[in-house]
Design a protein that fits this description.
Layout (H helix, E strand, L loop, with lengths): L2 H12 L5 H16 L5 H4 L7 H15 L4 H5 L1 E4 L2 E4 L9 H13 L7 E5 L5 H9 L4 E6 L2 H13 L4 E5 L12 E6 L14 H4 L4 H4 L8 H13 E10 L5 H9 L4 E7 L5 E8 L2
Parallel strand pairs: 3-4, 3-6, 4-5, 6-7
Antiparallel strand pairs: 1-2, 7-9, 8-9
Helix pairs in contact: 1-2, 1-4, 2-4, 6-7
This protein binds S-adenosylmethionine.
Length: 283
């Protein structure tokens, strides 16, 4: 089979699952990721014969796409803040909304020369590593309960020469912490079980549920624990940055107001939903 025939095979196999522009995009991304070919090769050498190994790889990818597996798990790579991150099913695929959170931190902290920062629930390390690249003088700590996720995050930090101190631990039961903090950042699990029906199979069937879901009767548990932790370990005038579930905006506001020592700032994502919070500790 040649290149254009294999692209056509993709189109006919996947036509009931994706539209043609999406299929063509996936095909291009896959040949770039698997064979390091420029996408222009499809136009320039449409009759290039594929080896059996190349063909097997593409057929396997088509099968996985047909089963709704995310493209990023098939290629093992995702882009975030103009950096490439290794991903696998142990980690959440970095989202564009989270890039917006990192950009907000970058904009607001440009004047901050030195800081000690903790990221809670680092997953692929996309937030901590991007911040490490933006703020090379910062001391950055990042933790996650999942050791397989920490392994990926370490690889990503090495890939981008970011000096991050990783901690493999359960934040919900963490009792000892020895580093006074200037900033805490988190995109913790925040989806309630009722929202499962609205979610796509590519998320529900493939992404780690521990990264996504919280108990129905305690959806803000990570934020509450972070706020309690911050009472002790975040310095006065220190800042917290959260990605939040817009569905719990009112509950988040009430929770934060109950601590009585934060100025609250909110920000919408590109879809116009209030998705981010910045809190400045007053005392
Ligand atoms: C929504 S994901 C965020 C991943 C990454 N920071 C991102 O923005 O793409 C939440 C992360 O929290 C981690 N996590 C879940 N429960 C945890 C716990 N009790 N302690 C520490 N990390 C936890 C998950 O393993 C997951 O990597």
């Amino acid at each position: 089979m040649n290149l254009i025939e294999s692209r056509d095979y993709f189109r006919s196999t996947l036509k009931n699952t994706y539209d043609t522009p999406a299929i063509d995009y996936y095909f291009k991304v896959l040949i770039q990721a698997f064979f390091k070919w420029e996408a222009t090769i499809i136009g320039l050498q449409p009759r290039k014969i594929l080896t059996k190994t190349e063909l097997d790889q593409l057929m396997d990818a088509a099968k996985r796409l047909l089963a709704s597996e995310p493209l990023q798990y098939i290629t093992g790579s995702a882009h975030f803040c103009n950096l490439e991150f290794k991903v696998n099913p142990a980690v959440l695929i970095p989202r564009p909304e989270t890039e917006e959170l990192v950009e907000w931190i970058r904009e607001t902290q440009l004047q901050t020369s030195k800081m000690t920062l903790l990221e809670v629930g680092t997953g692929s390390g996309c937030i901590a590593v991007s911040l490490g690249v933006y703020f090379p003088n910062a001391e950055i700590h990042a933790l996650d309960i999942d050791t397989a996720a920490i392994e990926i995050a370490v690889t990503n930090a090495d890939r981008h020469s970011a000096a991050i101190n990783f901690h493999s631990c359960d934040f919900l039961t963490l009792s000892d912490w020895e580093f006074p903090l200037d900033r805490i950042v988190s995109n913790p699990p925040y989806i309630s079980p009722e929202e499962k029906q609205e979610m796509q199979p590519n998320v529900m069937d493939y992404e780690p549920h521990r990264a996504l879901f919280v108990p129905a009767d305690n959806p803000l548990l990570f934020y509450r624990k972070i706020l309690d932790f911050a009472q002790q370990h975040l310095k006065t005038e220190g800042e917290l940055f959260f990605e939040i579930n817009p569905k719990f905006l009112e509950a988040m506001r009430s929770l934060i107001l109950s601590y009585k020592n934060y100025h609250i700032y909110e920000r919408n994502d590109i879809f116009g939903k209030t998705r981010m919070m910045r809190l400045i500790k007053t005392v």
